[in-house]
Amino acid sequence: MAEFWAGLGKNVILMTAITAWFTAQVLKTITAYWRHGAFNAERLVGAGGMPSSHTALVVSLAAGVALREGLESDLFAVAVVLAGIVMYDAAGVRRAAGKQAKVINKLVREMRVEHKVRDTRLKELLGHTPLEVLGGAVHGMLIAYVFYVFYR
C-alpha cells in the first residue's frame, strides 16, 4: 500500500493537476474575501468563483502532458478534449443552472409571502464567467510550466 501512495506522489502530471486545483481553491477563497470583506470557508471547496479550479485542474493536466509527452501524443489529445468539456460545462451548463437557481429562489421568496412554501434554497454559485474560466486556464498553464521546469 505504501508503494501505491509513493507511486502516486512520483506522478508529476498528477501532482501538477492536484496542485493547480488546490492553489486555485486558495486563490478563489482570497478573491472572495477581497471582494466581500469576509472569510468564507466554503470557498475552499465550493464551485464557482475566480479562478475556476476545475479549469485550472484540467488545463494543467493537458499542459503537463503536452510538455512531457509532446503535442502529438494521444494522451495530450485526450486531455485537451477533457479540458474542453470541463470548461464548456463550467461556463455554460453550470452557469445557466446557477442563473436558474437564482430565479427559482426569488420566486420561492415571493411566493412565501402569499402562500405556504417550504424554505428550499438552491445553490446559485455553480458555474463561472468566461473571465473566471480564463483565469483558471492561465493558472493551470503556469502551474504546469513551474512543475515542468522543476521536475523534467
How would you explain this protein's 3D organization?
This protein is mostly helical and 152 residues long. 74% of the residues lie in helices and 0% in strands. The longest helix has 41 residues, at 74-114.
Task: Supply database-style keywords.
5 helices; about 150 residues; elongated; single chain; about 75% helix; mainly alpha
Q: Helix content range of the residues, please?
A: over 70%
> Given the C-alpha coordinates, what overall shape results?
elongated
- Mean pLDDT, rounded to whole units? 84
Number of helices: 5
The proportion of residues in beta strands is under 5%
Oligomer: single chain
Uncertain runs: none
Structural class computed from helices and strand pairing: mainly alpha
Spatial separation of the terminal alpha carbons:
27 Å
Give the total of beta strands. Answer: 0
Describe the largest sheet.
none
Give the H and E element order: HHHHH
Determine Rg (CA atoms, Å).
Answer: 19 Å
Topology overview:
Blueprint: H1 2-9, H2 12-36, H3 53-69, H4 74-114, H5 130-151
Task: Write a short abstract of this structure.
By secondary structure, the chain is mainly α. The chain has five helices and no strands.
